[in-house]
Amino acid sequence: MAQPKPDAIFAPWDDPAATPLIQFKNVTKRFGDFTAIDNLTLDIYAQEFFALLGPSGCGKTTLMRMLGGFETPTTGQIFLDGVDIGPVPPNERPVNMMFQSYALFPHLTVWDNIAFGLKRSDMHKDEIGDRVEKMLKLTQLEKFAKRKPHQISGGQRQRVALARSLAKAPKLLLLDEPLGALDKKLRHETQFELMDIQETIGTTFVIVTHDQEEAMTVASRVAVMVDGTLSQVATPDQIYEAPNSTYVADFIGDVNLIEGTVDVPEKNAASDAVSIRWSATEPAIKATSDLTFGAAATVHFAIRPEKVSISTEAPEADNVMSGKILDIAYLGNISTYHVEVAPGLIIKAQATNVRRVSRRNLTWEDHVYLSWTDTAGVVLMT
Amino acid sequence: MNLRARLLIFVPYAWLLVFFLVPFGIVLKISLSDIALAIPPYVPTMKDGFWTMIRGLDLENYAFIGAGAVFASFTLLVLAIAMFQILYPRVRRALIPDARYGIFDSAAVALTALAVVVVNIAVLVAVLSFLFPVLSDFVDIPDFLYFAAYLSSLKIALISTLLTLLIGYPIAYGMARSAEHWRPTLLMLVILPFWTSFLIRVYAWMGILSTEGYLNQLLINIGVISDPLVILNTNIAVYIGIVYTYLPFMVLPIYASLDKMDDSLVEAAEDLGCTALSAFWLVTAPLSKPGVIAGCFLVFIPTLGEFVIPSLLGGSNTLMIGKVLWEEFFNNRDWPVASAVAVILLFILIVPIVAFQRNQEGGER
């Protein structure tokens, strides 16, 4: 998936000369017998919007709490700006956190909540006032400065929490499931607000979320975590288009996974061509991969449903399969067709509903053809 | 309000009427009567006829126990508090114009407001006593015992409330911070003493505190002291007894308020630059305030009229109004004076009870 990059693109992780803001070096965290983080090494760069994505219990929150100073690594080191922050208590770290529950102080007004951190610093009173006003303006909360947290809505509370954690201008802002308590529509709006704010102030954000859509929307890079280890760390498009394992492919979005063995390549085939035999009778799947596989290696072929075309007549394509429609999931803008191409193998194909449902020519039990190009899917070893 | 709702409310009101107001009315009537060598030991009674009885009532007993002085000092106290409440925010606004202030600024403002209040009250008292010399008769105290007993009770109640708070808060804090699965057990341990009679537990303290008691034996055996400490029958024993007895009433409301506090609030405070200690003062303490206030009232109100603990653990110089009341009733058989003492005690208790109610309502909002 090597794509030509415009000059201005922000990708310090591809630049070997760039020094990361945060470095995790072989960090392990154990709670008794349970290993929450297992020998993890990770670099996060300044001004990144970095998302930690994973199912609950994968260690993403522990990782974030170690950055905040609420947990210390059992072994390994964490560097912030080249300084080992392991022994630094939370109140002395240039790191602020936005808590999942927002943790707004219920006995203080919005104004005092935002000023709380500034009052603990040696900032002058007048400067504190200016800074708080600036934060209120940034988060559009000027009108609510005198209210208590229980007198404002959930979305406003979320913004107060954000303003409070940004007020001290931290080097790093941690966001623990920041939008979890908001309803879907507000969540989408807030995601864009978050991105705007991050672009405006240029602080490094690390966000923890279990919502893959949220991670894909806001983040410059996404780390998919499973059982205390990183499965893949890449940009959202790479994670989606080129997952490095069936776990990541399956966790992010919808995917068809076909297990098969690698055929002996034909003599005049291209060097990156791979053909995967998944059934004794059907033709092999033609795909491409940068990896080289031994003959007869067991692999998984992963292809996203939207990359599979569906038609009633046999098309000209690298890969064509025929089958019967079992199910149709109508989602309004798109429909997902579940097509049984062989006994037990169901492939999902997505088509945009350019026509109204009444004009749709595909229906249950129809015999259809599925097709895709040889570059549409990825071949995965694990 | 429909009939059924009225009927429902009638039941508790009828209960109050029968079990509180009627006995109170009887006590009030006795307090207005005169002592007599008779059964019952006061005159006039209903036997003399209703109107004769009413005409025979007077305020003699109240004058004897110095109710006028109690009433006057009480009025002045309430006046002072009200004045302080009005003055404090105004002085604060005048001295510290912006909303941001430290604890020393607040203390300075409070002291200024307090000084103004004291001067105002002093001037008021001077003017009143100059204009109405008859008032000095009103505040005259023929027998100082009762007034001293009220003051002493107030002092003992205040000090023991403070002591209970000092001991109860760390217990409640420790309970709220303990592991989730330990909490029911700890809560149980706090409530456990209620399973035995209060009287037995106070007697047990006599066994511990007496000169030959367990405490002295232990201290002598480990060589800390050579002569036994005299604790029993002193005010110290009374404080120990009160703190011990009323500790659960302090611990439980504080625990309840700490328990519902979100742990991440303290983490947030630390994240924003607080040390563990300042996070406690700035976040945990203000959020547990309703529990502290409720606990203080729950200890203060019953302690003020406490009788059993001072009479069992206290000495001859332990002066508490509950004990005076009991002695007046049973040793002196002076029911009218005892009743007057009881009525004034109730009058004193009304203020903290009303304040407690308002705190509870405030907490619910």
Short description:
Chain A has helices at about 60-70, 110-120, 125-140, 155-165, 185-200, 210-220, 235-240, 245-250; strands spanning about 20-30, 35-45, 50-55, 75-80, 85, 95-100, 170-175, 205-210, 220-225, 230-235, 255-260, 275, 285-290, 300-305, 310, 320-330, 335-340, 345-350, 365-370, 380. Chain A is an alpha+beta fold and about 375 residues long.
Supply the key terms.
heterodimer; A: 382 residues; alpha+beta; Rossmann fold; OB fold (Dihydrolipoamide Acetyltransferase, E2P); 32% strand; globular; B: 365 residues; mainly alpha; MetI-like fold; 1% strand
Structural account:
The complex is a heterodimer of chains A (382) and B (365). Chain A is an alpha+beta fold and 382 residues long. Chain A has two domains: 13-249, 3-Layer(aba) Sandwich (Rossmann fold); 254-380, RNA polymerase II/Efflux pump adaptor protein, barrel-sandwich hybrid domain (OB fold (Dihydrolipoamide Acetyltransferase, E2P)), CATH 2.40.50. Helix content of chain A is 22%, strand content 32%. Chain A has helices at 60-68, 110-120, 125-138, 154-166, 184-201, 212-218, 236-241, 246-251, and strands spanning 22-31, 34-44, 49-53, 75-80, 83-84, 95-98, 172-176, 204-209, 221-226, 229-234, 256-262, 273-277, 285-288, 298-303, 309-311, 319-330, 334-342, 345-352, 367-372, 378-380. In chain A, the strands form four sheets. Chain A has a six-stranded mixed sheet with strand order 6-7-8-3-9-10, with helices on both faces. Chain A has a five-stranded antiparallel sheet with strand order 13-12-11-14-20. In chain A, strands 15-19-16-17-18 form a five-stranded antiparallel sheet, with no helix packed on it. In chain A, strand 9 (221-226) and strand 10 form a beta hairpin. The longest helix of chain A is centred in the middle third of the chain and has 18 residues, at 184-201. Chain A is globular. Chain B is mainly α. Chain B folds into two domains: 67-140, no CATH class; 144-365, MetI-like fold (Orthogonal Bundle). Helices cover 75% and strands 1% of the residues of chain B. Chain B has a two-stranded antiparallel sheet. In chain B, a hairpin with a 6-residue loop joins strand 1 and strand 2 (42-43). Chain B is globular. The model of chain B has no long low-confidence stretch (mean pLDDT 89). Chain A binds chain B through residues 68-70, 89-91, 95-97, 99-101, 103, 105-107, 111, 115-117, 119-121, 125, 128-129, 164-165, 168, and chain B through 98-100, 262, 264-265, 267-275, 278, 282-283, 286-287.
